[in-house]
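Ex. 9. Protein: DNA-nicking endonuclease, Smr domain.
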Amino acid sequence: MNYKIGEKVTFMSEAGYAVIQSFKDANTVIIQDETGFNRDYPISELVKIQSENYAGGGYADKDNIEYEAEIKHTIKEQRLDFDTTDKQQVWEIDLHMHEIVEDDSAYDGGAKLRKQVREFKAFYKNARKNHIRKIIAIHGVGEGILKNEIRTYLDTQEFLEYYDADYREYGKGATAVELQYK
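Predicted structure tokens for DNA-nicking endonuclease, Smr domain:
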């Protein structure tokens, strides 16, 4: 991917953002991170930020347009640990690319991640709108980038608690979110 001096970028393996200051060599740039420090960084670990609305720590939706999830989610009925009365709906979403799009060959790594994050945000907002009390996001294990992006987004939301989903059912690749309402 071609980068230019002054472009905003985010990292594939850590939270935050930076601005490209200069090119050290063909594989390394000098960036200024959000804290104002300059450091060398491998070009292969950077992703362009496509929106000026980026606030750091995650991907902004382009132009703040409401994004409608294209992905199907599963609805289960189960008795929630925190509610012993009736069974409640639990929504589950699988964020693996092959579940989101039929052919992901047109997506590079950064575009895949942005698509997955947009799908999760739309899913989350839809669950809130429908007063769902628990959702499960299946993000896989991998390098943990998608999991980190999801949890960074959840940290900006109110009235919820999240944790690793049941290991027996999902392994280490899912996050459970309990939503609370006033």
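Check your answer against this statement. The chain has two domains: 8-58, 66-179.
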